Amino acid sequence: MNPRVTMGGIALFATVLYALAPIVRGNVEIPIAQHHLFHAAMIAGAAFSGILIAGWQHRERRGAAGWLLAALIAPVAAMLLMWPSEYSYFELHPWGHVAEHFGLVGLGFLTGYSGQQYANGIGWAAAISVFGMALLAAWGYGVGPPLRAVSTPAQAATSSVSTTTNPGHGADLFAKNCAVCHGAAGAGGEGPSLKNERARKSLIQAEAWIENPVPPMPKLYPGTLSAQDVGDVAAYVEALH
Ligand code: HEC
User: Fold this and answer.
1) pLDDT band at 154 (very low <50, low <70, confident <90, very high)
2) Could you say which of 3.10.450.710, 1.20.120.30, 1.10.760.10, 1.10.10.10 is the CATH number of the domain covering 153-238?
3) Residue ranges around ligand 1 (CB below 6 Å)
4) Are 120 and 56 in contact (CB under 8 A)?
5) N or C end of the chain: which has fewer CB within 10 A?
6) Per-residue pLDDT tens for 20-33?
């Protein structure tokens, strides 16, 4: 067998093994940026193997427009798949997560392979562009809004904090103690809007803020609010959108 194709096969195999990580490790919570770097590595491995397998010597058949179309669509589709925060249900189950990874590997491969089939060098250009987009995602570009803390029981179960908080009770506390400044629906008033607070503060940070706010926001803990109350109302605020 052609050594270039063999190398491409090995690279693809290694990438597929790498994509199986969520099964091996279970669903470990890692920072979103790091997660995108792993995705970028998968795309790089898959696209590179696609280029190796397609090769670069001149071939008669090259140049069919269908390959160019695939080389253009694959990176866009890969980008859509990389919205892990929007596609959170993928991330909640190891197999769903692996399916997402296989999607990325397949699209990465297609990017390199089809570009190269269209014309020598296009595979490299397309692969580098999709890899670059994955890197940009790690720095926050094009990343969807973060997971909402308590919007579904399944998501709540993945967070150690929100399993013990009660956002329903938090809603009552909010109406009594916070709505006067932040508005009944959290849309703001004398205090700022708390919609999408999750994008500004994590649950832990929101709790810390409520425990030690900057004036004019009143310090209600300890006193009016117990530690449990702080957790509940913070969970409620984190779910506002
Ligand atoms: C007297 C009015 C007032 C009340 C009552 C009040 N807040 Fe605030 N809150 C503010 C103001 C003003 C700010 C902005 C302070 C700043 O950024 O310097 C703020 C900021 C916040 C923030 C941070 C927003 C950000 O920028 O990320 C959170 C979270 C918050 N409040 C939650 C609550 C909760 C929960 C309650 C009820 C337990 C509450 N607040 C009660 C006035 C109030």
Assistant:
1) very low
2) 1.10.760.10
3) 177-178, 180-182, 190-192, 194, 197, 200-201, 206, 209-210, 214, 216-218, 220, 233, 237
4) yes
5) N
6) 887 777 655 666 67
